Amino acid sequence: MYTENKLYELLDEVIDPELGIGIYSLGLIYKTVIHFSPTNEGSPESTEIIMTLTSPFCPFAEAILEQVETAVTLGGYGKANITLSFDPPWQAPEHLRGMLGV
């Protein structure tokens, strides 16, 4: 079964190279929508992801986006349609602020 929670687990396996933390745990994923095939409702056709990066100038942006696309595809969630957004700007989630020193 393809669920958002399983998708979030897959996305959290994509590690931000600078911080060493999964992108879902970092709060970089703003929204996901799983689109199922009309002919095969058990299998996703594509997945929309709206996400951000820790900085608009992130030197690892291309690698992170490629890893997200790979995780979605290999995880069976179909084609990844990724939209990168910096509105709102990323802020560390409350539970990570102390650990990150912010």
Give a description of the structure:
The protein is an alpha+beta fold. It has one domain (4-94): 2-Layer Sandwich (GMP Synthetase, Chain A, domain 3), CATH 3.30.300. The chain has helices at 4-12, 61-74, 94-100; strands spanning 15-16, 21-22, 29-36, 44-51, 79-84. The model has no long low-confidence stretch (mean pLDDT 92).
Radius of gyration equals 14 Å
The number of distinct helices, counting runs of at least 4 residues, comes to: 3
Instruction: Characterize the overall form.
Output: elongated
CATH class descriptor name: Alpha Beta
CATH topology: GMP Synthetase, Chain A, domain 3
Q: Please describe the biggest sheet, giving its number of strands, its sense, and whether it closes into a barrel.
A: 3 strands, mixed
How do the strands of the widest beta sheet line up side by side?
Answer: 3-4-5
Determine the mean pLDDT: 92
CATH arch. level architecture: 2-Layer Sandwich
Strand fraction equals 25-35%
CATH superfamily annotation: Fe-S cluster assembly (FSCA)
Number of domains: 1
Give a count of the beta strands, DSSP E runs of length 2 or more. Answer: 5
Along the chain, the helix and strand elements come as HEEEEHEH
- The end-to-end distance, rounded to whole angstroms, is 38 Å
